[in-house]
Amino acid sequence: MRNAYLSAIYDLANHNSNVLALISDNGAIVYDKFRKDFPLQFLNCGISEANMVGVAAGLASTGKIPFAYTISPFLSLRAFEFIRNDICIQQQNVKLVGTGAGFVYSALGPTHHATEDVSALRSLPEITLITPASPLEVKKAIIAAAEFLGPVYIRIGTNGEEEIYKHDYPFKIGRGEIINEGNDLAIITTGSIITEALSVARSLREKNIHVKIINIHTLKPIDNELLIDTAKKIKVIITLEEHSIHGGLGSAVAEVLLESGCTGMKFLRMGLDNTFCKGYGKHHELRSLNGLSANHILANIQRLLMN
Hints:
Layout: H1 2-15, E1 19-23, H2 32-37, E2 42-44, H3 49-60, E3 65-71, H4 72-78, H5 80-88, E4 95-99, H6 117-122, E5 128-130, H7 135-147, E6 152-156, E7 177-180, E8 185-189, H8 194-205, E9 211-215, E10 218-220, H9 224-233, E11 236-244, H10 249-259, E12 266-272, H11 283-289, H12 294-306
Parallel strand pairs: 1-2, 1-3, 3-4, 4-6, 5-6, 8-9, 8-11, 11-12
Antiparallel strand pairs: 5-10, 7-9
């Protein structure tokens, strides 16, 4: 996903001199080509994330389109006040790109895991939140963000994420994507953890259980229409996120469904429940240690269908 982002912002900068890349001294080497070809469109703000956000807001006020990039928790949480006051209150056209969504920075531990960023930023007025599920979706999200007028936060992975799309598709902010059709149950997910849901769907198809998988790439504004339509037709729904269930995707979906009057369903939120990510290891190992592997999803589905 990180490479997809770098490719997308390079292309944008090549066609629009107002597009700027800002970093906070993290991973500067991956910007070598960008810095060489567009030296006037690159700014390393140093290890000072809040300052980078303030600089981005100032640049946006002059008509620039700054993309401020750094590790997700340092961007969303450390610089939260600056995002609130300098960007959202002022409605500045800043694009925030947080890398390391979920447990991607696996062995670096919970200080580097982005498991509360959606909860925090979803509370802010004016900001749009996007969590792409694959490299192709990262490129589309970056292009859409550049064209969109207003604050945008995009959280991406950096771990060689799998491509889930076999064909091109029209990406639209605020619209969810049906990745797999099914009528027996629905898994609503966001980000690269969708690969676990797809694995589950393949396993259950052999048992004649058909799973609808919905990719909610935009968490704010969320696709109310798609969620409500799904809940009217399918009565077993699971939300799946590599994030806290408190204030994240699960909360957002529950809010939509309950406020729209959808009832009579079995509903389960899967994610971190009042805990930080447990353990150390590779990315897939952390998903398993924290109850978010395909096997854990299958076990929960079996329990829901039997009760």
